[in-house]
Design a protein that fits this description.
The protein is α/β, with parallel strands linked by helices. Helices cover about 35% and strands about 20% of the residues.
Length: about 190
């Protein structure tokens, strides 16, 4: 009975993939949504909402909620892409080389990616080495409070890849579900440096 339930669960999981918005057709036919009307009002009125996250290579990042977004102390006055991704998500895997090239082209851009499909730090280090990732990666397994915060603040339902574009002032300017092509990532970058 337990094996049958496990098979049913795995079948449903595999069919659902990375989320309904991440199919190849959606990736190739969509444009970047730059939402000028992202709510400016904080959902949570508590002061000093902060997080400390550690990248798999040992860097500590200090995040603080600000009136219209998030400040990452280590990347102050820089545009930031905050990305939720998964190691077995096809759109996420296709986006990794694009993000690598984007960081090579734009040295001021900071990328912070949280792996949310369950790799621990050791497994994630191997994944980063295999993929030649040159940006900051955090094991989501160790950052569940921050992930829950993003779900609540940005209305993230769990589909990946999920991107928050944060400008130099720390304001969230772009919320994007689904993978982006090189040209779309360039548009996101240009919007963040305005």
């Amino acid at each position: 009975m337990l094996i049958r339930q496990l098979i049913i669960f795995l079948t449903i999981f595999l069919i659902s993939g990375c989320g309904s918005k991440n199919s190849d057709n959606n990736e190739s036919n969509k444009s970047v949504t730059i939402d000028k009307n992202i709510p400016k009002k904080s959902i949570n009125k508590r002061k000093d909402i902060t997080f400390t996250l550690e990248t798999v290579d040992g860097k500590t990042l200090h995040l603080k909620e600000i009136p219209h977004g998030l400040e990452i102390k280590e990347f102050k006055n820089r545009p930031i892409l905050l990305i939720m991704f998964g190691y077995r998500c096809p759109p996420c895997l296709r986006e990794i080389p694009r993000l690598i090239e984007l960081t090579k082209k734009h040295k001021d851009l900071a990328i912070v990616a949280l792996e949310v499909q369950g790799l621990n730090s050791s497994e994630l280090k191997d994944f980063i080495e295999l993929r030649n990732i040159n940006y900051n990666v955090i094991a989501g397994y160790d950052s569940m409070n921050f992930i829950s915060y993003i779900q609540a603040k940005a209305g993230w339902g769990g589909s990946i890849p999920f991107l928050l574009g944060i400008d130099k002032r720390g304001e969230v300017k772009i919320i994007q579900v689904g993978g982006l092509f090189e040209s779309q990532l360039e548009l996101v970058y240009k919007e963040l440096i305005k």
